[in-house]
Amino acid sequence: MSNAPISPAHAYEVLLAGNKRFVENNHQHPNQDAAYRASLAPGQRPFAVLFGCSDSRLAAEIIFDQGLGDLFVVRTAGQVTGPEVLGSIEYGVGVLGAPLVVVLGHDSCGAVTAARQTVIEGAAPPGFIRDIVERVTPSVLAARAEGETEVDGIVDVHIQRTTDLLLERSTLLAKEVEAGRCAVVGLCYHLTDGTVREVGNRGLTPRSTEA
C-alpha cells in the first residue's frame, strides 16, 4: 500500500480487497520485505486505524492481507474503550493522518458471551475481567431491549454502539468525519470462513461501501 494520503472510501476498498484475498487464499503478503521495512524507519503513514478485539484469531494484518506500516492497530478484549484507546485512535487519525477507522468485532465473542452470562446469572467474573464485562454489559442490555438475546446478535449491537461511542467521546474524530477526511466503519469478522460483514458506518456513502 502506498504511503500517499488516500480517501476514506479508497482506504475501505483496499481493506476489503485484502480480506477477499485472505478468504480466497490468494495472499500477497505486501510490504513485508527488508527494503520496505527499512524505508519505514523514518516514519509511518498507515491508511487505516483498526480497533479490534484482542482475540488471537483476529490478527489484523493477516485477515486483511496487509503489511508493515499499513495498519495502526489498537486491540482490547471485546474492543472495549477507555482513555488509552481513544487517545491511540486519535493519534492514528490526527497525527498519522489515517482516513479510516475500523471497529472490528467477531462472532462467538468471549467478552460478549461473558457479559450476556453475567446479565442472565447476576454473577460477575473476578479481577479486571469484571471491568471488561461491565463495559460490554450496556450493549447486552441495549440488544435485549431490541429483542435480541443471542450472542452474535449482541455482537452486532456492540460493534455499532462502539462505533457511535468513538464519535460521541472523541471531538477530534467527530470533526474529521464531519469534514469528510475520515470515516468510521463497524465490521464483524466470521471465524469460520474469514469474511467480514459491515455492521454500520459513519462517513461513507452507500455507494462507497459496496464491496
TrEMBL record:
Q: What is its EC number?
A: 4.2.1.1
What UniProt keywords apply to this chain's record, in alphabetical order?
Lyase, Metal-binding, Zinc
Gene Ontology terms for molecular function: carbonate dehydratase activity; zinc ion binding
- The protein in question is named carbonic anhydrase
SUPFAM superfamilies reported in the protein's UniProt record:
beta-carbonic anhydrase, cab
GO term, biological process aspect, one: carbon utilization
Q: Spell out the PANTHER family in the cross-references.
A: CARBONIC ANHYDRASE (PTHR11002), CARBONIC ANHYDRASE 2 (PTHR11002:SF79)
Which SMART domains does the record match to this protein?
Pro_CA
Q: How is the cofactor bound?
A: Binds 1 zinc ion per subunit.
Q: Which family does it belong to?
A: Belongs to the beta-class carbonic anhydrase family.
- Residues that, per the record, bind Zn(2+): C53, D55, H106, C109
Top-level enzyme category:
lyase
Catalyzed reaction equations: hydrogencarbonate + H(+) = CO2 + H2O
Q: Which cofactor does it need?
A: Zn(2+)
- What this chain does, per the record? Catalyzes the reversible hydration of carbon dioxide to form bicarbonate.
Q: Which InterPro entries match?
A: Carbonic_anhydrase (IPR001765), Carbonic_anhydrase_CS (IPR015892), Carbonic_anhydrase_sf (IPR036874)
A Pfam match:
Pro_CA
